[in-house]
TrEMBL record:
Keywords: Signal. The lineage of its organism: Bacteria, Pseudomonadati, Bacteroidota, Flavobacteriia, Flavobacteriales. Residues 1-19 form the signal peptide. It comes from the Bacteria. The keyword Signal applies. The keyword Signal applies. This is DUF4197 domain-containing protein. InterPro entries: DUF4197. Pfam families: DUF4197.
C-alpha cells in the first residue's frame, strides 16, 4: 500500500509540474492590450498638459522658462543688437517680453483645443510607441496634430499679439529700425513665428512629463499608468 501511495505521489508531482508548464505558456490575460496601452499614453499626455503646459499659461510662463522662452527670430536679432547699440535696450527688452506674453496668452486660450486633440488621437501602434524613446508619445502627438493645432493657435496668437500690445510695440520698433540709414528694412511675420514657438514650447513641456512618467515609478500616480508603463521598464 505504501508503495502504491508513493507511486501516486510521484505521478501527481510530475502532473503538477507539467500542468504548471502549460499554465506558463498560456497568454497573460492581465497584460494590457493595445487599447489599454493607448489609454495609458493619452493619460500621460493629459498629465503633461495639466502639470506642465498649465505652467506656460501663467505670467512669465514662457518668458522666465529658458526651455521654452520665445527668442527673437533671426530677422530681428540684428534689430535687437542695433537698438541696444544706440541706447534703446529698454525698447528691445519690451519687444521680447510681449512676444512671450502673446505665447502665454494663446496657450491659455487654446489649451481646451489641445486637450480635445489628445482625447481624439488614435495610436495605431500603441505598444511600439510605449516601448519607444522618452518622448515617443509626445512626438507622435506632435506629428499627428501639429498642422491642425497651428490652424487653431494662429488666430489666437494674432489676437493675443494685439491684446498685449505686441503689434503696436513691434511696429514702433521696426519703424525705428527701418528709419536708421545703416539698416535694410525688415518685416517678419510675427504671428507665424510666435505660433510655431508656442507650439514648440507646449510639446517640449508635455515631453518633460512623459519622460518623468517613463523613468520614475513614483510619477505613475494612477493604476492605469502603473499597469501600462510597467511594460517598458
Amino acid at each position: 500500500m505504501k508503495k502504491a501511495l508513493s507511486l501516486i505521489g510521484v505521478f501527481l508531482l510530475f502532473s503538477c509540474a507539467e500542468l504548471q508548464q502549460v499554465v506558463n505558456q498560456l497568454p497573460n490575460t492581465t497584460t494590457p492590450g493595445n487599447e489599454q496601452i493607448a489609454s495609458g499614453l493619452r493619460q500621460a499626455l493629459d498629465f503633461g498638459i495639466d502639470k506642465q503646459v498649465s505652467k506656460l499659461t501663467q505670467k512669465d510662463g514662457f518668458f522666465k522658462n529658458e526651455m521654452v522662452k520665445v527668442l527673437l527670430p533671426a530677422e530681428l536679432q540684428k534689430v535687437d543688437k542695433t537698438l541696444r547699440g544706440i541706447g534703446l535696450g529698454n525698447l528691445a527688452d519690451e519687444g521680447l517680453k510681449v512676444l512671450n506674453r502673446a505665447a502665454e496668452d494663446a496657450v491659455k486660450e487654446a489649451t481646451p483645443i489641445f486637450v480635445d486633440a489628445v482625447k481624439n488621437i488614435t495610436f495605431t501602434d500603441a505598444k511600439n510607441i510605449l516601448l519607444g524613446g522618452d518622448n515617443a508619445a509626445t512626438a507622435y502627438l506632435q506629428s499627428s496634430t501639429e498642422k491642425q493645432l497651428y490652424g487653431k493657435f494662429s488666430p489666437v496668437i494674432n489676437n493675443s499679439l494685439s491684446r498685449v500690445g505686441a503689434t503696436e510695440i513691434w511696429t514702433k520698433i521696426i519703424n525705428k529700425y527701418n528709419s536708421l540709414p545703416i539698416t535694410n528694412n525688415v518685416n517678419p511675420n510675427l504671428t507665424d513665428y510666435v505660433t510655431n514657438q508656442a507650439l514648440k514650447g507646449v510639446f517640449t513641456m508635455i515631453a518633460v512629463e512623459e519622460k518623468e512618467i517613463r523613468n520614475k515609478a513614483a510619477a505613475r500616480t494612477t493604476n492605469l499608468l502603473r499597469s501600462v508603463f510597467a511594460l517598458q521598464d
